[in-house]
Amino acid sequence: AQSVTQLGSHVSVSEGALVLLRCNYSSSVPPYLFWYVQYPNQGLQLLLKYTSAATLVKGINGFEAEFKKSETSFHLTKPSAHMSDAAEYFCAVSEKGNQFYFGTGTSLTVIP
Amino acid sequence: DTGVSQDPRHKITKRGQNVTFRCDPISEHNRLYWYRQTLGQGPEFLTYFQNEAQLEKSRLLSDRFSAERPKGSFSTLEIQRTEQGDSAMYLCASSLDPGKGQYFGPGTRLTVT
To answer: Which residues contact B53 (CB under 8 A, 6 or more apart)?
Structure first.
């Protein structure tokens, strides 16, 4: 069965500090993995995707994520947080592309 | 590429009434998904279409819910005999290739009074 766990429903970082949002998944086969961002009162926007071409994936707005099969993790990072990064972030997994499972989300607050 | 659109954006209905939502995917996308999102939760998968065929349906989905995608273009989601627990944001997403991710619409916020 597929599932996603996002550790930490709320994360606060100072502006300019490293952002680390955690995502662990369960899947019986190498999955499709994604991170989405949802800004207040806006729809979900694709941040980045993993599709087995490379373990380190770069996305928009300076975010990247690393796929670690041994740890079943797909953590999202950004070297230096910006105020505009404040949003809700969701990790998602799919084995076949027919059903997608989302985590419960991590709300990122950036402190000036 | 005009993006995924959903109509209406907001719907308030009384318990027991039927409601129908519409989703227009990105024109060349053959895959279409419906999700439900409640406050503080991630999107919950409801159903999936590939072209006009409904290939997946969540086991959690009540039989009061039905979805169609005639001709493989737009899709409708109907909820019959609405209950207060149906209050949520209903999201539609489309894609051409699952590996490239899904594109979400703005959602329809349903409030059942």
So the answer is: none
Residues whose CB falls within 8 Å of the CB of residue A54, separated by 6 or more in sequence, listed in order: none
Residue from B24, B89, B100, B109 to probe the interface with A (highest A Cβ count within 10 Å): B100
Q: Which tens digit of pLDDT belongs to each residue from A34-80?
A: 999 999 888 899 999 987 778 899 999 999 999 998 899 999 999 99
Size of interface A-B (CB pairs under 8 A): 61
* A100–B33 CB contact, under 8 Å: yes
CA angle A105, A95, A26 (to 5 degrees): 55
* Band (B72; pLDDT cuts 50, 70, 90): confident
Residue of chain A whose alpha carbon sits nearest to that of B90: A43
Structural contact between residues B45 and B61, judged by C-beta atoms closer than 8 angstroms:
no
Task: Give Cβ neighbours of residue B64 (< 8 Å, ≥ 6 apart).
Answer: B79, B80, B81, B82, B83
pLDDT of B82 over the 90 cut: yes
The nearest alpha carbon in chain B to A40 belongs to: B106
Cβ-based neighbour number of residue B1 at 10 Å: 8
Q: Shortest CB distance from B42 goes to which of A97, A98, A104?
A: A104
